[in-house]
Amino acid sequence: MTTDQNQSPITGEEFVAALNHENQEALDRLGRLSSAGEPPQELSIDRLLRVALKNELEASEIAAVWMATTSELDVKLAFARQAGDEARHYRLISDRLKDLGVDADAIDPREGGYSALFEYLRQLQSTTARVAAGQFTREAIAVVRNQCFIDFCEARGDHQTASLYRDIIQPDEKHHHELGWKLLERYATNDNEQQVARQAAGHTLELAEEIQEMARLKAGISRAPGC
Ligand SMILES: [Fe+2]
Ligand SMILES: [Fe+2]
């Protein structure tokens, strides 16, 4: 992937640190939007956990699709691990919904179709773009959103759901982001790959913001967790 003629003056390490810095502004905005205003009283934890099921399913499925179609062994295995983690999150959330009295087995998060973010991610072919969009950026978004959701759960007095996110799900999402960071350092080592990575990260953030704003305007949903 890296050739001497095409070697960027910016190393993979420098590039990822800069990209992280650039992403931060959009992530801060997402966090502010997600926790803006007073949430409507009818916005319940179980309603948000249903949104979470959809996010976890999509994150697991994308990682599984990519696992099968990525040739770099370290990236393939990172996607495999992520696919399993996100499926475990799905099960934990589903169990929590049952504790809350919801018939979670009757929920099919595919109803209403997959999100625009899923469709965008699914068609990405470049390994660098996949890591930049799916792990490095999407997982950073999840960490920001989950924190807003944890604060919301605590404010509503649901300490058990807050603890599920804080103690079990959040550490995994942080790990996915950090895996993405390491892999991106390894593969985004020339101008071309860095440009591809930057574009994929930027588009992921744009789509995430659009989807979040639409959910808030159409259904009054804010504070929804990520994946
Ligand atoms: Fe994740
Ligand atoms: Fe997850």
What does this structure look like?
The protein is mostly helical. It has helices at 12-34, 45-68, 73-99, 116-122, 127-155, 159-187, 191-219. The longest helix has 29 residues, at 127-155. The model has no long low-confidence stretch (mean pLDDT 94). Bound molecules: fe (ii) ion (FE2) (2 copies). One fe (ii) ion is lined by residues 59, 86, 139, 142, 173, 176, 227.
Spell out the blueprint of helices and strands.
Layout: H1 12-34, H2 45-68, H3 73-99, H4 116-122, H5 127-155, H6 159-187, H7 191-219
Helix pairs in contact: 1-5, 1-6, 1-7, 2-3, 2-5, 3-6, 4-7, 5-6, 5-7
The site of one fe (ii) ion (FE2) has 7 residues, from helix 5 and helix 6.
Q: What tags apply to this protein structure?
A:
globular; 0% strand; 227 residues
**Global geometry:** globular
Low-confidence residue ranges: none
Which kinds of small molecule does this entry bind, naming each only once?
fe (ii) ion
Q: What is the number of helical segments per DSSP (H or I, 4+ residues)?
A: 7
Q: How many runs of DSSP E, i.e. beta strands?
A: 0
The helix-and-strand class reads mainly alpha
Helix content: over 70%
- N- and C-termini, Cα separation: 30 Å
Task: Give, in order, the helices and strands.
Answer: HHHHHHH
Report Rg. Answer: 18 Å
**Major sheet characteristics:** none
Q: How much strand content do the residues show?
A: under 5%
**What's the rounded overall pLDDT mean?**
94
